[in-house]
């Protein structure tokens, strides 16, 4: 099976081309491919499949030729992945599978059809409008941190750190405990602290994230979107740009005057090769 390895700010993925939807991508195979010791290694697997050939995306085929079938590293299905979307688009462009039009390149996802724009070394993606909808908490050991629930097409809990708690000191080797009544399907948890101002940007924050099904990752695109939405709201801003520093680099979240939300950052393909599915299972 041919694969490509790519990442967006350190959030890394195994990309597998399956244009006609013929590959049986089982949870076990996904987990094996993502195993960093016995497989290729990654935070998830992205399957590149034509929308018309996938039952979950057939209705989107008229708007977007390609569907991003994303799986977490434990084999579970995810609605969306902001960093993965940029890597997906980079794959399409590099392999000549798509050409951006005047309004960008549309991609079908489980969160709907999303538009992307190609920049100079970066890719800018229009994401689902984040919806801040409830208060909740996350618990790490003896520490309980208040947070805000945000729906970005997938569930997030954004927790601002206070009272001298340092972002770097958090132990995210285990999943933070969360309220199952608020997040019955699990949640991506972001911990945030303010950072120094940057020229040309309205706000600047740092975050770490524990992704459901993957553990702590170097970055999370929809997590950055959720963090940006909460940061703008807390600053009393209805539009603006937020620099979100993650372990793997920097992402920029922007809310435009027309109400659209964008995520911009790098997307890099680093290797291609062949893998024997029977050998990794």
UniProtKB/TrEMBL annotation:
Homodimer. It catalyses: (2S,6S)-2,6-diaminopimelate = meso-2,6-diaminopimelate. NCBIfam families: DapF. Substrate binds at residues 11, 72, 82-83, 154, 188, 211-212, 221-222. Belongs to the diaminopimelate epimerase family. It comes from the Bacteria. Catalyzes the stereoinversion of LL-2,6-diaminopimelate (L,L-DAP) to meso-diaminopimelate (meso-DAP), a precursor of L-lysine and an essential component of the bacterial peptidoglycan. Pathway: Amino-acid biosynthesis; L-lysine biosynthesis via DAP pathway; DL-2,6-diaminopimelate from LL-2,6-diaminopimelate: step 1/1. The gene is dapF. This is Diaminopimelate epimerase. The record marks 156, 211 as: Could be important to modulate the pK values of the two catalytic cysteine residues. It comes from Actinoplanes utahensis. Pfam families: DAP_epimerase (PF01678). One of its GO terms (cellular component) is cytosol. One of its GO terms (molecular function) is diaminopimelate epimerase activity. InterPro entries: DAP_epimerase_AS, DAP_epimerase_DapF. One of its GO terms (biological process) is lysine biosynthetic process via diaminopimelate. It is found in: Cytoplasm. Its main location: cytoplasm. Keywords: Amino-acid biosynthesis, Cytoplasm, Isomerase, Lysine biosynthesis. Its EC number is 5.1.1.7. The active site is at 81, 81 (proton donor), 220 (proton acceptor).
